[in-house]
Amino acid sequence: MEFPILSLMLAVPLVAAIACLFLNAPAARMVALFATLIDLALGILLWLNYDIGGAQWQFTERAQLFAGFQYALGIDGIALMLIMLSVFLMPICILASWDSITKRVGEYMAAFLLMEVLMIGVFAAQDLFLFYIFFEAGLIPMYLIIGVWGGDNRIYASYKFFLYTLLGSVLMLIAMLWMVDEAGTSDIPTLMQYNFPVGAQLWLWLAFFASFAVKMPMWPVHTWLPDAHVQAPTAGSVILAGVLLKLGGYGFIRFSLPMFPDASADLAWLVFALSMVAVIYTSLVALVQQDMKKLIAYSSVAHMAIVTVGLFAFNVQGLEGAMMVMLGHGLVSGALFLCVGVIYDRLHTREIARYGGLSINMPKYALFFLLFTMASVGLPGTSNFVGEFLALAGIYEVSTFVTLVCTTGIILGAAYMLYLYRRVAFGEQKNADAAAMTDLNAREWAMLAPIAAAVLWMGVYPESFLAPMRQDIAALETRLASVAPRYDSALDEGTPRATAANYVEYEGHEEGEH
Amino acid sequence: MNSILFIVFLPLLAAVVAGLVNKSAPSVFAKSITTGALFISCALSWPIFLSFVSGSAEASVVPVLTWVQSGALSFDWALRVDTLTAVMLVVITTVSALVHLYSWGYMEEDPDQPRFFAYLSLFTFAMLMLVTADNLVQMFFGWEGVGLASYLLIGFWFKKPSANAAAIKAFVVNRVGDLGFMLGIFGTFWVFGTVSIPEILEAAPGMSGATIGFLGLRVHTMDVLCILLFIGAMGKSAQLGLHTWLPDAMEGPTPVSALIHAATMVTAGVFMVCRLSPMFETAPVALGMVTFIGAATCIFAATVGTTQWDIKRVIAYSTCSQLGYMFFAAGVGAYGAAMFHLFTHAFFKALLFLGAGSVIHAMHHEQDMRYYGNLRKHIPLTFWAMMAGTLAITGVGIYHLGAGFAGFWSKDAILEVAYGRGTELGNFAFWMGTLAALLTSFYSWRLMFLTFWGKPRWIESEHIQHSVHKTPEEAGEDTTGGYHPHESPLSMLIPLGVLSVGAVLAGQVFAPTFLDDAAFWGQSIFYNEDLIHRMHAVPYLVKYAAFIVMLIGLFVAWLAYIKDTSIPGKAAEQLGPVYRFFYNKWYFDELYHYLFVVPAFWLGRQFWKLGDIGTIDRFGPNGVAWVIEKGSVGAKKFQTGYLYSYALVMLLGLVAAVTWVLF
Predict the structure, then answer these.
(1) Burial category of B654 from C-beta neighbours within 10 Å (exposed 0-12, middle 13-18, buried 19 and up)
(2) pLDDT tens digits, residue range A173-223?
(3) Residues of A numbered 315-354 whose beta carbons fall under 8 angstroms of chain B's beta carbons: which are they?
(4) Nearest C-alpha in B relative to A467
(5) Are residues B215 and B350 in the same domain?
(6) What chain B residue is nearest to A382 in terms of C-alpha separation?
(7) Closest to A514 (Cβ–Cβ): which among B281, B282, B536?
(8) Distances (CA, A) of B25 to A359, A363, B18, B33
(9) Is there a domain that residue B66 lies in?
(10) Are residues B604 and B500 in the same domain?
(11) B597 and B655 inside one domain
């Protein structure tokens, strides 16, 4: 048996979480940082040892527990990338909470570490019920982080968050019970190849959809997100936007598409419709926000809509694009929330109008903020461009109309992000307290610089990230090939014209006198 | 090691170093490193260009790095050098190097010089990536990169609300064009299975009869693809409909206007159409659109230019108008002529902008021509440079002598070819172009006369009042207010001198190469030899048309701004509505404001307040909460706390369960 690296990645933060409960504040911070850095190191090891083009499921671990329920872990390239995203963001979250969290520090760090366990677990789980446990348990630490360390209206926000996400989960659990009964196994890789009756697929798909659509979040079940973000502490927002929102997309790619391909094809129109509404609707709502975190939260909904259309394009470009948007958005929106956190820590307000002219007193901050703003806008050379471009290219094959509507997101996105940047970083320094804020300190540098590097890396050389996923995406495309929808942009080759459009004949052959 | 790598990446390196060091070193460090890099790039570019002129060079592609591979869609970072690229290389690096040098003087007193120079170099890098692109996506990278640099430089003085607004406007309006560009790339990929430009161009003729579905319609494949791509070009090159950002972009420092908003970035659309010319030649409808939009922009911008008072805005509208010439040249199939005008225009328009900057510098930041006058004697070198630019843009030259300034060669060629094309659209473009040439002559000489001739009107300017600490009343008869305009420093005069040489000679020297040398262009553009023969065979009246209207424009301007200065006021009064229509730029800004900006914000608020809060939350989570709250009041009644009532419920439940199981 090979070295159980995935279990170790779960164990390290779990042990640290328990330890944090009994430690004082400075010690808890150090332990949390140390544990998350170990997990990051293990993650890098995992990536380096991942055999691209090798077996589909690697680093598998299996232990039978009771009644067919098994402790089964293993990853493919898709899970690997999302685990990397989680372990990369986690130490940054701990740093972001370093000074700003002062009450119940031990419990806070424990909640974050537990969150890390559950996030890695959810991507590594190979058993349906194990997945469910990780998937749903993830709610609890997040609920606590918002409810205990959140802003003034934290109770309402945490309640809303919990209610929404739980509602979908109940239906998903029922569907899972039925599936295990039908297929006789709870093993995810097996289920991904299992052909469920077409009639049943519809109901199963809808049950899973209820859960994933909320997590995504898709319009119109997105309203928990702005409230949750606004009330959550900075690090909570980072992990919420960076990783939790990816659970919905991961769910689609791991469950809905491979397990219910026929239903996915039949209901793609629903996904397209909701996504198109989301792009326009939430982008316009983002335009009129006065609260920085709300604005970025709404922009997340619009970006996630690109993920869903990409996934349901049923082709390689769409699927890979959707994955790249998830990774890119995880980094960029996380970084944008950190940017908000940096100035929130100084002025304790998220109201955009209270800032202005920060380029003058915080030039380094302004530079980072600009980079992440441009990445969010999808400027080529940054992470988000690659994803958005591929996802939209993928959907063009299926529907030019959906592409047209979703691509307007690049116009609206530029409008609301640049409008935000202008009000925060440009203009006169009209507020004396904002003008007195100091530039980034070393800790904040350590948070933002790695993300900036990753954003550029992913934008200039995305091959590092695409290569591990290539084989899994191709397998999924093969699985979906039989149901892929007909194209509205189908080409009919006619008879080529013999001459160029500006063909002219020149009669006089004597040379003109110029 | 290939020199193209240095040409492209040195400016990037300089930008990064200058930007990161920023103010931790004296600003002369950032200025030296960026300017030095650009002069090296420029020095390396000219040999490449000249080797193409002499015919000794061949097209080549230097691979740099894998970018994206996703199924059949793959594209790499690579630098392509062919004739078309070589032309752009010299234009970009020459103007950029001169603008860097000029900025030493122009930006002397600015505290943020390192940032400014870093942006300029970053822009140059992005522009070079655009013109060396071997695939559509790298072109899009450069396209967006120059957009970013333009945004940053327009908003360079970010304390000014107008500069911020202009910067956002430039970026967002360009994004509208980018929407078309992106859809065009997607469509091209699905039709040809590649985004590599040479492969697309090779396969394009075979697709000329094909149809494709688009938004539920069946349309000609190549037409729809080319129109989508052209929408991108319209945004970047400020063509009618998507032009509104360009005049506002004049909020940026003047060297930026010269480099980005005159000589290089705004010509990217023309470059794109020329680069893809074999593709556009399979799309007659799209080419018709290119011709029409070009001709319409040409005349539209010229009408607006005749009425503006801000010296930079006049030149900005003039740029817009000249870009229109380039587009309709491309539309009728004369890509070489379009590129030639791009080439000469880069020199004389950069010259005009830098000259205007020198005037503004001399006049204490005043940009309104109403407060200039008689500057000829005070800043003679700037005056002569501007004169060279004006002679070039108005197209002064005599056909039978075979001599003329740069604009004469390129603009006349465009008008002749439009006429020679012999179609209705070609004739339309010819007439619009000739009329625009008249207006060009008028507004250019108007600019010259208002600025350099007549009586000084300086004291009415607030900037001058600040400088001399006098009001017009205090100054009395002395309308100069005692102000002494000073000639610009050497760092600004050298670029003016170099560009003046270009404005005078660029046409004369390169006309045979650009217009008649099919071998020079090779495979880099679609070269239509028969069309060029027809261009040379047009009647003499057509050949002299531009010169004649130039004289008329000059005469009218002389009449109105030197002979009898009361004419413009009277004319504006007589022509009331027409004048206001032109002066207010055909009300495009107002139209767009009420058509797009206001509804977007209104809809956003409605969706938020009525949609999210008023409907989804109200009937969603809050509704559930309400139901639970009411429900729990009822449920409370069951929780009496008495053991016997619980026992009763349990018993009833057991009975029910047993009944269910048994029966």
Answers:
(1) exposed
(2) 889 988 888 888 888 998 898 888 988 899 999 999 999 998 888 988 888
(3) 315-317, 320-321
(4) B69
(5) yes
(6) B141
(7) B536
(8) 18, 15, 9, 12
(9) yes
(10) no
(11) no
Percentage of chain B beyond pLDDT 90 is: 61
CB contact under 8 A, A285 and B281: no
**Domain boundary assignment for chain A:** 274-484
| Residues pairing with A351 in the sheet | A291
Confirm whether B475 is domain-assigned.
Answer: no
> How much is the pLDDT for A514?
43
Please answer whether residues B416 and B543 qualify as being in contact, where contact means their C-beta atoms are separated by less than 8 angstroms. yes
B45, B8 in Cβ contact below 8 A? no
Report phi then psi at B82, rounded to 5. -140, -170
What 3-state DSSP class applies to B327?
helix
What average pLDDT does the segment B391-415 reach? 90
> What share of chain A in percent tops pLDDT 90?
56
- A460 CB neighbours in chain B (<8 A) are 65, 67, 77
Query: CB-based contacts of A457: which residues, under 8 Å, 6+ apart?
Result: A383, A464
Segment B494-504, tens digit of pLDDT: 999 999 999 99
Q: What is the pLDDT of residues B467-493, one digit of tens each?
A: 888 888 887 778 888 888 888 999 999
Nearest neighbour of A285 by CB, restricted to B151, B215, B604: B604
Size of interface A-B (CB pairs under 8 A): 242
Give ∠ CA B218-B595-A395 in degrees, rounded to 5. 35
Note the residue count of chain B.
663
A77 touches chain B (CB under 8 A): no
If asked whether residues B289 and B202 sit together in one domain, one would say yes
A73 φ, ψ to 5°? -120, 155
Cβ atoms of residues B278 and B333 within 8 Å:
no
What is the residue whose two structure tokens read 């049923």?
A314
Distance from CA of A326 to the nearest CA of B (A): 16
Bridge partner list, B66: B76
State the pairing for strand pair A70-75/B73-81: unpaired
Contacts of B221 in chain A (CB under 8 A): 491
Helical packing angle, B576-583 and B284-305, nearest 10° = 110
Number of domains in chain B: 3
Q: Which residues of B touch A418 (CB under 8 A)?
A: 151, 167-168, 171-172
Selection from A114, A44, A52 nearest residue A83 by Cα: A44
Inform me whether the C-beta atom of residue A53 falls under 8 Å from chain B C-beta atoms. Answer: no
For residue B614, what are the domain limits? Answer: 585-619
**Does residue B641 carry a pLDDT above 70?**
no
pLDDT value for B52: 92
Instruction: State which residue of chain B sits closest to A404, comparing Cα positions.
Output: B183
Q: Rounded distance, CA B200 to CA A91, Å?
A: 47
Interface contact A18, partner B, CB < 8 A: no
Cα B178 to Cα B234, B366, B476, distances in angstroms: 9, 35, 54
User: Does B625 map to a domain?
Assistant: no
Asked whether the beta carbons of residue A400 and residue B145 sit closer than 8 angstroms, the reply is no
Rounded to a whole number of angstroms, the distance from the CA of A349 to the nearest CA of chain B is: 21
ipTM reported for the complex, 2 dp: 0.92
Q: Which CB contacts under 8 angstroms, 24+ apart, belong to A177-184?
A: A178/A204, A179/A128, A179/A204, A179/A259, A180/A68, A180/A128, A180/A129
User: Does residue B570 sit in the same domain as residue B611?
Assistant: no
Residues B541 and B606 grouped into a single domain: no
Are B402 and B445 within one domain? yes
CA distance A221 to chain B (A): 8
Is B208 close to A496, i.e. CB distance below 8 A?
A: yes
Regarding whether B303 and B277 lie in a shared domain, the answer is yes
Assess A288–B contact: CB distance below 8 Å, yes or no: yes
